[in-house]
Amino acid sequence: MITRLDCLIVEDDPTVRLCLEVIVRTAGHHVSLAVDGASAQAKILQRHYDIVVSDVRLPEVDGLSLARLLQTTSPLTKTILISAYATPPEAVLAMKLGVYEYLVKPIEEAELVKHLTKLLEDFRAAAEVVAPSLAQASDSVEKECIIAALEALGGQRKKTADALGISRRTLWLKLRKYGLSNWGR
């Protein structure tokens, strides 16, 4: 189960960056920091983050450009943009880029924590949906591998078990699991 978010904070003002870091860490999440858009861009291209909290106005690469980059390279990463100079057209553009939230400075701690908590709940819910699907896909692939091995080896269970690197008992249990217990000899 997901217990914390992996967060990248992008803020050129050291005081605001420190405040955001303290809020996110205190909420129980992992924090990485970037002092400008260019260093954030490099970090985003090196690894995955669950969420990027970024100022809109940054040196070199702005927050909207980071949102565009995330949209193409890491579409599952959520973005919260923050701005002291918020304008309606900028907010609309941010939403069109798939930004999760657009907040106006000064940011209230409770508001940011509320969004982080909601994101964590969303990630947990998604994981609960995906995990059974992966297990089913894994079972399906395993079943197909067993069938292919049995067919290739003329249905001989001992040779099939040896080829799959499992015991005959394990093969027998898997054949029962997949309704193939009458297959082979």
Care to describe what's here?
The chain has 185 residues and is of the alpha/beta class. It has two domains: 6-107, 3-Layer(aba) Sandwich (Rossmann fold); 134-177, Arc Repressor Mutant, subunit A, CATH 1.10.10. The chain contains seven helices and five strands, in the order βαβαβαβαβααα. The protein has a five-stranded parallel sheet, sandwiched between helices. Helix 2 (37-46) runs parallel beside helix 3 (63-73) and helix 6 (157-164) crosses helix 7.
What brief labels describe this structure?
single chain; 185 residues; alpha/beta; Rossmann fold; Arc Repressor Mutant, subunit A; 2 domains; five-stranded parallel sheet; 7 helices; elongated
Blueprint of the fold:
Layout: E1 6-10, H1 14-26, E2 30-34, H2 37-46, E3 51-55, H3 63-73, E4 78-83, H4 88-96, E5 101-104, H5 109-152, H6 157-164, H7 168-177
> Which architecture of the largest domain would the CATH scheme give at its second level?
3-Layer(aba) Sandwich
How big a fraction of the residues is strand? 5-15%
The number of domains is 2
Q: What is the CA-CA span between the terminal residues? A: 42 Å
Strand order of the largest sheet: 2-1-3-4-5
Here the CATH topology of the largest domain equals Rossmann fold
The CATH fourth-level homologous superfamily of the largest domain: Response regulator
Tally of separate helices: 7
